[in-house]
Write a structure and sequence with these properties.
The chain contains eight helices and ten strands. By secondary structure, it is of the alpha/beta class.
């Protein structure tokens, strides 16, 4: 169902404690995300937006509050259950690419399938590589790629398991404007194909690809608005 919730968080809090000094990072965050949405989370440096994404993507745990994922309360899941959710339901794209050194594009993309017992690993990996327009780089090593190509490999790795939701944390932060636009056009196309996208960014032009923008400051949400989606590239242009 198009209105089915994939994420619901209620009163989420996150504190960091250092030598008995408690620093609140997130305060009483309530968010609902429907399947198929493209949501941008915006805020200045230190606002808590990346911490929020890490909690939503099961990379960190909240200090308080309740987290429902796909209708299930996952707040008290142990590390093993959270790792299973990350591997099967979630894909990540980070600013720093996080590719393995001295390995090919194919080897990087196939990695998430190695731990999942998936058959036809190579076939699935090759499809993901094709989906981001990098078939001609399949056997290139990561150090032979441009920054934009590295990020497209990271996207291929994120989608190879066909996740329900893709988290992208400042995916254009290390790219020139042209490469950044190509990356955002790919994410937009994935959203149009049914993937839920949650994007963390401080860049206005990047956030404008989303259909909804959540703004966060000092650990609190101060606006949540829908925006009209914009087309920045034709499909035939973005994969060259």
């Amino acid at each position: 169902m198009p209105d089915e919730l994939i994420i619901k968080i209620v009163d989420i809090k996150k504190d960091y404690t250092n030598e008995e000094v408690v620093t609140p990072v997130l305060r009483d965050i309530d968010i609902e995300v429907k399947k198929g949405e493209f949501v941008a989370i915006m805020g200045p440096s230190g606002s808590g937006k990346s911490t929020l994404m890490h909690i939503l993507g099961f990379l960190d745990r909240p200090t308080g509050g309740t987290y429902y994922f796909d209708g299930e309360d996952v707040t008290d899941f142990d590390d093993k259950k959270l790792a299973m959710l990350r591997n099967k339901k979630v894909g990540f794209v980070f600013q720093s690419f996080n590719l393995l050194a001295k390995t090919t594009v194919l080897e990087n993309v196939i990695l998430p399938l190695v731990y999942d017992g998936v058959k036809d690993k190579k076939t699935k990996a090759l499809k993901a590589i094709k989906d981001v327009g990098l078939e001609h780089r399949t056997n290139f090593y990561s150090n032979q790629l441009s920054g934009g190509e590295k990020q497209r490999v990271a996207i291929a790795r994120a989608i190879v398991n066909d996740p329900e939701i893709i988290f992208a944390d400042e995916p254009t932060g290390n790219l020139d404007s042209k490469s950044g636009m190509q990356v955002m056009a790919i994410l937009q196309k994935l959203n149009e194909e049914g993937h839920t996208i949650i994007l963390v960014t401080h860049e206005t032009y990047t956030s404008e690809h989303a259909k909804r923008i959540i703004r966060i400051k000092d650990g609190e949400i101060y606006s949540d608005e829908g925006v009209k989606i914009r087309k920045f590239a034709k499909e035939g242009e973005l994969l060259k």
